[in-house]
Amino acid sequence: MCGSVLLAVLCWSAPHLALAQSLTHAPDLILTGTLLGKDHQTYREDAFRVPAGVRRLTLDFSYSGKSERTTLDIGLRDPVRFRGWSGGARSRLVVAEGLATPAYLAGPLPAGMWKLIIGVPNIRKVARTDYTARIWFDRTGERDGDIQALPAAKGASWYRGDLHAHTAHSDGTCLASSGQRIPCPVFKTLEAARSRGLDFLAVTDHNTFAQNQSLTELAPYFDTLLLIPGREITTFQGHTNVWGPDGDLDFQLGTRRARTTDAIFDQAHAAQGLVSINHPRLPSGEACMGCGWSAATDWSKVDAMEVINGGSLAVLGPEGPVSGIPFWEGLLDRGFRITGVGGSDNHDPDLAADKPGALGRPLTYVHADALSRAGILEGIRQGRVFLDIRGLDRARLEVRATSGEQSVEMGGVLKLQPGAEVTLRVDVSGLPAGARLTVRGNGAGSFANRDWGLESGHVDLKLAFSGAASWLRFDARDAAGGLMILGNPVYLTPAP
Question: Which end of the chain is more exposed for a tag (fewer CB within 10 A), N or C?
């Protein structure tokens, strides 16, 4: 008999099978069964049906009798092939198009009858064991979020990381033990990120998600570093980072697979990802094919822009002729709310940490509610971001804009009546002596050509809203005027 009214929805003799309640994050399917002493050192295959369109399957397995030394192992078969065997090492497994729990194979999830394989290496003659397998089907491929859950839960804070790095899964290289240059394994990039104190890292190899399987395997070891699935969509008209999705995305711009950038961006957003245009003002040519951005673009679908790229930083500095900052600010002037981010674009994790283009140069700081994939991506989406171009030790830039009862930080929007007073508080720390604060944007008014010393660690300003939709943001510069910290805008807009 089924053990409860819930499980009685659809059941038969062991194993029992039931559809779960349609609650948020509740299992889509529950398998239950009972094993007795006679099942010692046998195998059981429990069938369950996977519907069409599933892109990610999550299974949690539990059983009773452990105090009596009962031990159960598990594995998985799909209708076509064997998908893996984790034995008794894991109680939870994920199989998706782009990644899978170690011991399991990533790839498409065919519809039809799958089998949960249960091995029984030990159960005593008079023992009884009840087991339950809870199964979730996800058609977006993204329900379960992070590749790993960090053991030390961290709440709201500023977190720093790198959003653009390459490995052997595209064109990342490093020196082997013999001294030969080789395609660089993923663990080298993760080691460099950890050694440089990064909180998060997106590995963004060109047009592939094969690196995600390596990230999944390495995640338990690098348990202080949040790993964010990503890829650099590389087309003949420009490069775009997509963060979040761990499955397939089309990149063949101009073909039936992706006729326009809209098709690419819509796929990314449907998979709960963010879209960021990379190094938009790099020249395109034989030295860097398709590097500059020239594709027709609906900018309302772009979440972020890599305004400082480590490769160009190494050659021409953050405000040189290929800087993405003027291009980005031109879009801000047109009313698009796009978050400015940085990326090292690292292709060699052994590059010295003090060199531009090394992993973490520039650093992107994100104010997030939690150190999680969802938290970091939401912080970027909201514009709660600043960039550290110099690799300083825990620099900080905080902006608070207030008018009446409204109060927002970077990325926020104040809705104002013409002439309304806006109070701005800028707090800065971790900068060298002589640092100055500057302001940019079409909402800066009379402050546009001024700068302020930072001896006190903060600057307070007041301005009157002009009545026109506008933006302003703050940067920190060294005594010679060199850009050290780049901030994101606060937006001022007419109240309805």
Answer: C
